[in-house]
Amino acid sequence: MRRLATPFALALLLALLAGCASTGGTAMPPLRTEASVDLERYMGRWWVIANVPYFAERGKVATADVYALREDGRIANTYVYRKAFDKPEKSMNGVATVVPGTNNAQWRIAFYGGLVKADLLVMEVAPDYSWALIGHPKRKLAWIFAREQTMDEALYQRLRARFADWGYDPETISKVPQLAEQAGQPGFQ
To answer: Quick one: which of 81, 122, 93, 92 has its CA closest to 105?
Structure first.
């Protein structure tokens, strides 16, 4: 029974977070994207280099999102993580649907059989698909993804600063430890 209660509690908390998300008191229109995403190139493993920490991802290490096109046209979304570097890898499975008319840049993702849903926006993707910037319509959440597990510091700082162009406070974005030696270092969660 406890195993069932934990996913349900997480689903309830995510739903509350989505309902309470704000832009920090500033009335701003919902975030929109002009990006165009080639879904086949976008599939695969994306390491979570940084994010706006929130309860569902806070404290996780070696995190990644893995995407795969499904036969029904939707996208399998597997979030992989560790609770600590000496702990086993775990995962959560979701399904994403691309919102029509968005150049494949807006996704609706559902976890736990649809109990938890979120809209995500691919704000920008590198021409070679080596990194991507992900936002949320209410600007409460943001992610920096990369194909490699680590990122050059100068590139990271440039990408982090780009979120200001979309109405985010870049200072709210922190690195996710991907390697054990990064844990506890300045700038990391």
So the answer is: 122
Q: Which domain holds residue 61?
A: 2-20+36-182
139 in a structural domain: yes
Q: Quick one: average pLDDT of 39-65? A: 96
- The full 3-state SS of 23-37, as one line of letters, equals CCCCCCCCCCCCCCC
pLDDT tens sequence across 132-170: 999 999 999 999 999 999 999 999 999 999 999 999 999
Distance CA 153, CA 68 (A): 29
| Closest-CA residue to 51 (of 42, 41, 61, 39) | 61
Predicted TM-score of the model (pTM)? 0.86
Q: Which two tokens stand for residue 128?
A: 């070679």
Taking the CB of residue 110, how many other CB atoms lie within 10 A of it?
A: 16
177 neighbors 62 (Cβ within 8 angstroms): yes
Closest among 117, 90, 109 to 3, alpha carbons compared: 90
Domain count, the chain: 1
Contact 148/47 with Cβ under 8 angstroms?
yes
Confidence of residue 19 (pLDDT cuts 50, 70, 90): very low
Q: Quote the DSSP letter at residue 168.
A: -
In angstroms, the CA 31 to CA 42 distance is 21
CB neighbours of 13 closer than 8 A, spacing ≥ 6? 55, 56
The CATH number of residue 145's host domain is: 2.40.128.20
